[in-house]
Structures are given as C-alpha cells and as structure tokens.
From TrEMBL, chains A, B:
Binding-site residues, NADP(+): L11, G12, A13, G14, T15, V16, G17, S18
Protein's organism: Rothia santali
Reactions performed catalytically: L-homoserine + NAD(+) = L-aspartate 4-semialdehyde + NADH + H(+); L-homoserine + NADP(+) = L-aspartate 4-semialdehyde + NADPH + H(+)
Function comment: Catalyzes the conversion of L-aspartate-beta-semialdehyde (L-Asa) to L-homoserine (L-Hse), the third step in the biosynthesis of threonine and methionine from aspartate.
Name of the top EC class for this enzyme: oxidoreductase
Matching Gene3D superfamilies: 3.30.70.260, Dihydrodipicolinate Reductase, domain 2, NAD(P)-binding Rossmann-like Domain
Family named by the database record: Belongs to the homoserine dehydrogenase family.
GO terms of biological process kind: methionine biosynthetic process; threonine biosynthetic process
Molecular functions (GO terms): homoserine dehydrogenase activity; NADP binding
Positions of L-homoserine binding: E190
Location of the ACT domain: 349-428
Protein name, as recorded: Homoserine dehydrogenase
Annotated active site: K205
Length: 431, 431
C-alpha cells in the first residue's frame, strides 16, 4: 500500500509485549494501510535473549541493548513495567524525538507529569490508554470526547482481581480467603496478591484518570487507598439484605475547588450499572454536567485486550506522525489540588460486636447523635452464646451523610465503651 | 489565557443548538484554555430571527444569512438536521476551508462518503460524534482506540424511544400502543413516531457505525430495517419466560468478505450487558479479536448530552486546527460490501396461531425438518374457545441457527397449511 516505513522498537516481551509483537507481525499490511506508512519492528528489548520466545516472531529481533534500539526508533512501545529502567528509557526516547506508547501505570501514576512535560518539550506524543482498564477506551473519551464538558465524578471498577473476589463472595457467600484462593487457582490473582487486594493497582489508575478528567496533575500519593482484605462474608450478606453489592471503587470527584481521589470498598445499589460488572471485568462510570451518566465496560487486563489498547494508541499516534501533525501537548492547566479524605461527605455502614446487654443500642445511638451523625437504619442480630458464656450481638448501622473525620471521632468513643467489643467493619455507601 | 481567537458559526438553535450556544458563551474562558485559542461565536443561523430565543445569548448573533456566516467562519457547527440545505452548507464550509462538526445522522447515513471526501480534498476536519448515540463516545473509540484491533461485530441499542417502549412493555406487561402513548406523554416519543418505531433512526446510526468499525463506506440503503410495531405483550411475556428480553438492536457484523448491517427486534439473554439498558438509555456493545467484549453506555439523546458530544468534537478539532496539524483523512479503504439479509445465520422465535387439532404440531415440526431447520423448543398454549366456537392454540417455536432465506421458505409453506391461522411473530435471537 505504501513504500514508506517507520521504525518501531518494542521494550518487553511479556504477556502484553508478545501479543503486540504478534499483531505488528501478522497485521503488517493492514496496519500500513491504516497508518499510511509501514511500521517496521526493528527489535524487541528483553533481559535475556536465550529465554523461550514466541516462534511467530523472528528470533534475530531480540536484543538486550534497549538503548541502541530506542535511539534508532521513530516510535517506542514500552511494556516492561516498573519505575526503572522504564522511566529513564522513556525519557531517552522522548528527548530523542521518538513517540512513545506505554501501558506502565505504576510509572505514570508516580512520574506522569515529568514524562508528559518531556514529551511536550520534545514536541512528540506520549500515549498510555493501556495503563488504565486494559482494553476499555477510557482515557481518550475523558480527554477528547468530554473535552467540552465538565466532569464532576468518575467511579471505576479498575482492578479485575478484586472484582473477581468480591463477585465470588457475593454469588457464593465465600469468605475472603477462600475467594482469593479460588482467584489464584484460576489465574486471576497472583501468588503475592498485595498490589491488587490492598488497592494499590486501582490507586495508580485512579491517579491517571483523575489527572485527565480534571485537567490537573495528580500522583498515586494523592490517592487515599483501602483494600478489601477486611471484607467478610457477613458484610457481603448484610449488603445483599439491604439491596447493595460491595465493590472496590476508585472514586475521583470534584470537591469544592479540589478533587478527592480514593480507592475503597463501597456499597452500591444493585440497580446501579456498576453493580452488574461481574468476574474480572472492569468498568468506569463517568458523571458530567452535560453528558450526564456514561459507562465504559470491558476486560480490564489480559495480554490480547491490553495489546488492543496499545495498538490503538500506536496506530493513532503513528498516523499523526506520518501526516506530519504536531504532538498534542498536555492539557493539564487547572492544577486543582487533591483534597483530604477527612472532608469527604458520604454515607457509611458500620458493623459492631457488642455485649448483649439492655441499653447498649441506645447508648451507641446516643454517641452518634452527640457527634451530629444521623442514623438511617440500625439492625441488631443476636448470636448463640460464646464459649466464654457471655451472649453477643452484632449491630449494623447505616448512617446518613457525614464526614470521614466525624465518623472517626464517633467510632473512637464507641470503641471505648465497656459494652462494645470491637468495630468489625466500616464501609462507604454510594448511590 | 490567550489573545488569539478563531471564528465559530452555529447553524441551528433547536434543542441541541441552544445548548451549544450556551456552552460556547458560558464556558468561553475554559474552552479557550483547553483549545489554546479563544472560540468567538460570530453568529447563529436560524430560519426566523424573530422567534423566541435563549436570553443568555446575545440577540444580535441570530441571522438568516447562513451562507455569509459560513464564509466568515473557521469552524462551522451544523445542527439543523435533514438533508438540505444542510448538505450544501456543509460542502460550502468544507470547500471554504472551515472545519465542520455535525450531529446530522440522516445526512451522514446518506451522503457521508461525499462529505468525508470533500473534507479530505480540502484538508479539513469533519467530526460527527453527536450523530450516533448522543453523548456516548462511540465513534472515536471505534476509529482510534480500536484502530489496531479487528472489530468483528457491533450490537447497539441506538434509539432511546424504542428502548423506552420495549422496557416499559417488559416491566409493566403493556401492549405496544399503550407503551407508545406513555412515551409520547413523557416526551420520549414524537407525535409522529415513525422514524423511531420503524427503526429508521437506528438504521441511519448503524450505517455510520458500520462505516467506521469496518473501514468501509455504507449508507442507510445498505441497512435491512424492521421496527417494533408488531411486538406484542405476548411476545414480551414469552421472551421473559425463556430468560430473554426483547430489544431493538442495530447489528453490524463481519459476514465472510462483507458486512451485514441490520436493525430488528431481537431476543437477548437477560444476563447480557445490553439487557440491563433501561428507559431511554443507549448502549453499544463491540466485539473484537483482541479487546474481546466492550460496552459503551449513556444517554442517547437530549439537548445537553448531545451538546456534550458536539463540544467534545469541537474542542478536539479546534485544538488540532490551532496547533496547525493536518486534518486526519478518512480511513475507509477496505471497501467491504454490504451483504444480503438472506445469508444471515441466526436463531429465531416463531409464533403461530393454529387450530387445536390433533397432529397439527407434528405437521408443523415436519415442515421445519423438511426445510432442514432444527427446532430447539416448541411450546403449545391452549386458549379458551373462540367466539366462532373453534378452539385455538398458540405455538411458539425456537429454532437452532438457520438462514433468513430458509426460514422464509419454511414459513411460506406453514402459512399455507389449512390448520394454521397465521404467523403472529418472527423475532431473531442473539446470544
């Protein structure tokens, strides 16, 4: 279709990288016609060229000299992950005039501003759709499609592992540990699941999404983060009884003159579009002034789906490069500040284990009232006697809207009551 | 923020146009900073400047001289609808070097290729996200985000009026006429609902979506179109009993070396993500080789949501114009042909009214077998005796996969049987 070609360097040949290499090889003709110039894969940088490789790709393409590869490329696709050497290599590519596609969420959530500024200074394009929600096109709609609107809130299920675990707990009544073991057995969770179940992975994506949605610069350090380890089968059952489901949500919302960004388990009504996101799927729900409510749904991880997002960026950016158009610089200019979680107003469910004594419920209700928190519902469930012989009761309270700060003070006082054993759960509720 | 400005002409001041005028006026500062140059609204072309106008917009902006306005503009936003004079005006704008944003689906579905070629020839941008599914960003993801993937099928609920009617029938058991009257009362359906209920509106959108998804040129004449007028409360109840819901789907799918594009009522399983699209919402479900299954959901119509899509196009295209980048030409190059409906393989539900005589079911089953169509299920429901005194039965058949052509031949033979009163419904089933 065209005689011209341009040089592409691929860094990394893991789950996503090997899929990208396959598409670049197998679809060369189709890509050339869509871009208007032929992409020539000049090399794949790996740590060890003797390791087993995809046989569909020419073995001579593998190299350990990433720097030489980068310096020879027009477009660099970085799929190695981690902060270094990815950061140094991307900066080298950008300053050398190469456009860069990356799916490196950890790096972007930490050094996104530095990378974007380096791209702007060099007048080249940096694209990273694959860094958030795998194959789901969410960054481009936030940046371009909603560019003339005002986004007020983004709610996302941005981690497939935790959604799989919570969905399994919801549908089978399993405890967290059993659902995690099942996720590990099926390959949805890693042997060390910390980054997923503690919410760090979702927090990185939340920082990237908030930066684009609110035209500001946020890092993962701006994100308040709670995981799902403490969620019990009791919490899930209680949510079900009230018509809710528990999801690990990333929430990015306008908060006065700032933006509050947080990741935490959340009760959402079963009728909410996010409630029906099952298994390891991801979804991002966007609320804006004019568009109203939008939702984007799809596979949030996996080699081929993430490669699809990488290739979408690659074709779009290469096409622009071939046409000779200027890079589109960063639009972060509002520079809204991240706000503290203590300001956030929300409804909560609180679970308490208390001694089964007359008046304990009234005493607890009084502490909430003293702190100015209005209670919406209060349920008491009596348990069979303990081995110690003393009867025990679970109290579950749903509050009206209050601040995190106020709730914290309330629960500190309640925990100190002699009739209260412990606070078993605190989960936010979104409508 | 910037001293430079560029001139914007708005054609039309209806539901969407008035919202666009509001945003251009109220958000001038914010838009200037996002675009990098100040958009100056130089006029709003209307048929009659004396009609009641939005008081937030300077009355002096209204004019009946659309041509003079177009000739003075850098960007033209066309929101008048209909084929003429919209087509002539857009061609005038493009050939004069102005970029154009339009939400005119009827025009694009008929003359999209002509307009795109005129834009490419002039080296200017033509954008039309608002033409499909209102505020839902679907065209940009299809064109850019999935540019390195291979889309195999698109299923869309692309008309809010019919989704409202079908959802009402599903949740209340109402007949079509009552649900339509309710939709009209609530403003979801027009006094003359033909374009919506006959599927013409969805068919126009399907032609636009298929063109982008398959990088080819299709018009509304390539779309097979059936509406929802014939859907009865009985059909809805029978679907419910089998775990299905009836939706008016636009289906665009690869069919050998071509693309089949059609709009028709369809049974989809209740667990399918499209099944939970309620009220007047729209959703587009995309299947592709690498990304797998994606869904985009949101308001499919309305002044503000559609204006959000218009403004997204406007900011993106103006930004590129300000940066001095070239327009992105059309990527339609595969030129796949539209295929005939008779080739399409699908499952069907067929409803029949028959005389309640022994052996009628066996006779009908034999005709299906003679035509090589395998029956999955066959239900028989006996009715109270007719006034005429003759007992009657409803038979509902779900077939395995077969072609439209083969089913047509089968039903022609069955209709001619003396024991068969009539075929009451034929609805396709998607999984």
């Amino acid at each position: 279709m065209t005689d011209r070609s341009f040089k592409v360097a691929l860094l990394g040949a893991g789950t996503v990288g090997s899929q990208v290499a396959r598409i670049l090889t197998e679809d060369a003709e189709e890509l050339a016609s869509r871009i208007g110039s032929r992409p020539e894969l000049i090399g794949i940088a790996v740590r060890d060229t003797t390791a087993a490789r995809d046989t569909t790709v020419d073995a001579a393409l593998y190299t350990t000299d990433a720097e030489a590869l980068i310096d020879a490329a027009d477009v660099v696709i970085e799929l190695t992950g981690g902060i270094e050497p990815a950061r140094t290599r991307i900066l080298r590519a950008l300053s050398g005039g190469a456009a860069v596609v990356t799916g490196n969420k950890a790096l972007l959530a930490k050094h996104g501003t530095e990378l974007q500024r380096a791209a702007d200074a060099a007048g080249v394009q940096l694209s990273y759709e694959a860094a958030v929600a795998g194959a789901i096109p969410i960054l481009r709609p936030l940046r371009d499609s909603l560019a003339g609107d005002r986004i007020t809130r983004v709610l996302g299920i941005m981690n497939g592992t935790t959604n799989f675990i919570l969905d399994a707990m919801d549908s089978t009544g399993a405890q967290f540990d059993d659902a995690l073991a099942e996720a590990q057995r099926l390959g949805y969770a890693e042997a060390d699941p910390t980054a997923d179940v503690e919410g760090h992975d979702a927090a990185a994506k939340a920082a990237i999404v908030a930066s684009l949605a609110f035209h500001s610069e946020f890092t993962i350090d701006d994100v308040h983060c709670e995981g799902i380890r403490e969620i019990s089968a009791d919490d899930v059952a209680a949510a079900q009884a009230d018509g809710y489901v528990i999801k690990l949500l990333a929430v990015c919302e306008l908060d006065g003159e700032g933006v509050n960004i947080r990741v935490h388990p959340t009760l959402i009504p079963r009728k909410h579009p996010l409630a029906s996101v099952r298994d390891a799927y991801n979804a991002v729900f966007v609320e804006s002034r004019d568009a109203g409510e939008l939702m984007f749904y799809g596979p949030g991880a996996g080699g081929a789906p993430t490669a699809s997002a990488v290739m979408g960026d690659f074709v779009t950016l290469s096409r622009r490069k071939v046409l000779g158009g200027p890079a589109i610089p960063d639009q972060s200019h509002r520079n809204l500040e991240a706000t503290s979680l203590s300001r956030v107003v929300s409804r909560y469910t609180v679970g308490l284990h208390v001694k089964d004594k007359l008046g304990v419920l009234a005493r607890i209700a009084q502490v909430f009232a003293d702190h100015g928190i209005s209670i919406q519902t209060m349920h008491q469930t009596k348990h069979p006697e303990h081995e110690a012989g003393e009867p025990e009761t679970t109290i579950r309270i749903v509050t009206h809207r209050t601040t995190d700060e106020r709730l914290e003070g309330t629960l500190a006082e309640i925990s100190a009551l002699p009739t209260v054993d412990r606070v078993t759960s605190i989960i936010r509720v979104e409508n």
